[in-house]
Write a structure and sequence with these properties.
alpha+beta, about 45% helix, about 20% strand
Length: about 60
Amino acid sequence: MLDLVVAGEATNRAETARRSGLARSTVGQQVDQLLGRDILQELESGESVRGRPRGCWR
């Protein structure tokens, strides 16, 4: 999963789940761990189609 992020192929949870084939819950758990260790930094990036802010990371 982290390889996808580093390569710039996945910049949010949904995209990471889609590209990795992992369940969204698994991606969410892994992302939360990486955020907690300051390996990823979550940023707000515009609006989703439902009007809620989308999270992305770098």
